[in-house]
């Protein structure tokens, strides 16, 4: 009896191993294809076999040197600059809003929280056209400044996760500091912020990653000004009908260059990501 | 049902009981919701009434300086020694009046008609020649009209505050106190009024770049701003609910109404399938990875989670390329000898494209579910499974009788958020199929277009701005209702006992 139970369990585990292995291959193979073919030396856009026959760094080198029509290094720099600035502004905005909603008590608090919740329910693209005209009226379309503004202007609405974090810090700390004569400003900088490193790191990283992955807003704002593209729309341009024949391999190389750092950042903060998604939404 | 009866139910029955009682309570909750809204409105008007009463009574009770500050903002503060504060009020008043006279009023007076002078060839009185004369730009009139209204409301709020402040200072002086000087008020901004300092900047940017565009787009839905009325060449004007009527109008052929119905159906099918498939398969995989006795857990987990880490636009563009006729997937199938020539995954028939999109979405979405549910799955008490095994339940039975009810109970809010996310899942559709396969049967849409991608195409390709705005409002109503229900469910769930 015991033997057959063991056998049964062994069979079940073997079955699970097989399923996991097969599915694991299914999941990873497109990424493997991306990486392998980004080093492919021979052929043009596509080749009628799966594994490349020869490897070289040619695609990567061309990506950074052949910049006459499609300027990938420039796009990379654009995205980097936009990411830095919007990261600073949005982090400040998020922390300021979440701190006020979590630690300070004032008359307009509840109404403001509700307004923030309702604003979050509108589909984002609905406002894009209006934003486009607004930027046009300011003479800012097709500039990087416009992108920074767009990415950081609404950042304050993403306060929920860090508010949830601030809520967990005991209020007794604030009260003790107030008795000792600290102003709320000092409490914010000297007590709450140093205790909230994880959430600050999370906010910084998410707002830094945003511009690298956003697609649609950048496309609307930049239009056909290829010099000011970010990597996302730039890479899409590379696989458009006009360029695909020559640029497909470089598209793969460019994707790898963008994906590797972002993936590392994500794996680094996945714990916070899970907490963020489940916070408030999930009971348990 | 008595508590003792409840305790005897199995987890699934308990879930069903909770669910059905929540549904039964729904009409009552809805009633309460509307009563609460009514109470809020009453409270709002009572507040306004009180404010007006205070406004008048302060004018009557105040001394001459207070009375003058009702006309010249900040006067009362300046007379009583709060010189800088008074100057700031005054400067604000002058700035607003200048804005209103030189800029705002011109747009505001055209706001009811959105302009009546069309751009066209006319005799230019200055030169006497027959030239293209600029007319009214309805778009700018609408935009700046909204801006002026918002600024005016803000100004009146500040004005109200300034009269209040003048009265307060007068009271202080009359009581023999020294009014606070400017520096101490600035210091207060870092302490008792710290929220003002913190929230000023985010509120400003959100108002300009979120609220203002939102009001603008909502108003657009009530105009006839489309490609026949493009600013600045043509004028557009208010049409009331005509655009909404157009959406629900059922005519033959590729009408807007028929397209809306078709796309709504597909959006719902998509959202349900995408959510349910990802949830079920993700959970099963997470269970497999975390099963006792399975080795290399970290490896399996990483294999799946890596696809989450790679930016979504990269994976989607890559998938789009791999699904082409000459793409990697067709090459693989051909090398395996399964097919002779490439399959058109994305642009042959509606069914093939839709199934492909759903499958690819599983590839993208399942790792997210694994990531999210792993932790919760580990929290299911192990003795539940042990007793089930003793009672002779196999793994399938335990999954449907223990795991699924437990997870549904805990993650319903997450599921609904996920569902809303899928209704708005722009990236997957846009980057994968761009709505294709294209068809003549739908107005400006393909078979895999969701409502949100249709909204985008309507604005970008066919300039049907009013239609797009109306569709956006409808999507918002659906999503907001779902979110409110979720919110209420979580709130009620928190008060209930722990599932065990």
Describe the protein's architecture and organization.
The complex is a heterodimer of chains A (284) and B (500). Chain A has 284 residues and is mainly α. Chain A folds into two domains: 2-60; 70-278, MetI-like (MetI-like fold). In chain A, 72% of the residues lie in helices and 0% in strands. Chain A contains 13 helices and no strands. Chain A has helices at 2-38, 58-65, 72-103, 109-119, 128-137, 144-153, 160-168, 171-179, 184-195, 197-213, 216-222, 231-238, 244-278. In chain A, helix 3 crosses helix 7 and helix 10 (197-213) runs antiparallel to helix 13 (244-278). The radius of gyration of chain A is 25 Å and the shape is globular. Residues 280-284 of chain A have low confidence and may be disordered. Chain B is mainly α and 500 residues long. Chain B folds into two domains: 62-123 and 131-240, no CATH class; 256-495, MetI-like fold (Orthogonal Bundle), CATH 1.10.3720.10. In chain B, 70% of the residues lie in helices and 2% in strands. Chain B is built from 20 helices and two strands. Chain B has helices at 3-8, 11-24, 26-61, 64-69, 75-79, 83-108, 138-174, 182-188, 194-220, 242-247, 256-290, 297-309, 312-322, 328-335, 350-378, 382-390, 395-423, 426-432, 451-460, 465-495; strands at 120-123, 130-133. A two-stranded antiparallel ribbon of chain B has the order 1-2. In chain B, strand 1 and strand 2 (130-133) form a beta hairpin. The two termini of chain B are 18 Å apart. The chains are: A mainly alpha (284), B mainly alpha (500). Chains A and B meet through helix 1, helix 3, helix 4, helix 5 and helix 6 of A and helix 7, helix 9, helix 11, helix 12 and helix 13 of B.
Features:
heterodimer; A: 284 residues; mainly alpha; MetI-like fold; 2 domains; 13 helices; 0% strand; disordered C terminus; B: 500 residues; two-stranded antiparallel ribbon; 2 strands; 2% strand; globular
